[in-house]
Amino acid sequence: MRNIAQLAFYELYPGERSTRELKVKFSRAFKSYNANVKYTRDWMEFKLSYEWKSVSDEIKIGLIQSLMLKVFRDLPRPERTINMDLYDHFVKGIGEYRPATRVDPVLDECFERVNKKYFGGFMEKPNLVWGLESFFKLGTYTYASNTITISKVLEDDELLLDYVMYHEMLHKKHKYYTNKAGQSRHHTAAFRKDEDAFEDPDVEEKLSRYLRRKRWSAKAPERERSRKKKVKSLFDWFFG
Q1: Is 210 buried (19+), middle (13-18) or exposed (0-12) by CB count in 10 A?
Q2: Where are the alpha helices (DSSP H) in the chain?
Q3: 113 and 42 in one domain?
Q4: Checking CA distances to 77, which of 25, 67, 154, 240 falls within 20 to 30 Å?
Q5: Is 0.85 surpassed by the pTM of this model?
Q6: Range of the domain at 76
Q7: Looking at the 3D structure of the chain, how many domains does it have?
Q8: Helix, strand, or coil here: 21?
Q9: Average pLDDT over the chain, rounded to an integer
Q10: Phi, psi for 122 (deg, rounded to 5)
Q11: How many CB atoms lie within 10 A of CB 66?
Q12: Are residues 151 and 170 in the same domain?
């Protein structure tokens, strides 16, 4: 098998010489079409999910080159390669051919509301799943698996749930833009313009207040335990 990591390096950095051993491994432990890179001073390992095995080398080389850009910051910034463009095109499109097999009924109702109101009902349904009760990552759209994941913290507020769903559906619509330096922009001017079309102009402020209240409620048991501990400490001090 060709060492596609070496091919990727010499295409991306012609005239340069890699001082590390470059290797590629495939793993069944990753989610669909996921990948990462690990490295030391002596070696660099690109680990790809098993689905990548059947993808053409040209696209895999583009993936590896995109990861290389995050590592070789000491080398001159290269131009984008055709393989990187092929990789971007592949990732943006692969989710469109993956049928929705996991659809939570509450999120399904939310998707249908938002789809009808803002997309004319024409957006194809992705997988719709709840994530953890996160206050920081409220929603994500994963291109490769065609999945929108929403934080459980939003399940009690329909307006805010619709807003975050709308935001993630815009990611599905607009995909992302990659500049010549290999930097990806997900919140483009076109994305922001569509985001501003949401029905409630004060929704960001309402979202902030809602999350503050939720955090306060979530910490209530901890505050109560702390209060009881202080009372017990005072009791021990006076009567111990």
Answers
A1: middle
A2: 4-12, 57-71, 82-94, 105-118, 158-174, 189-195, 203-218, 220-239
A3: no
A4: 25
A5: no
A6: 4-96
A7: 2
A8: strand
A9: 87
A10: -95, -10
A11: 23
A12: yes
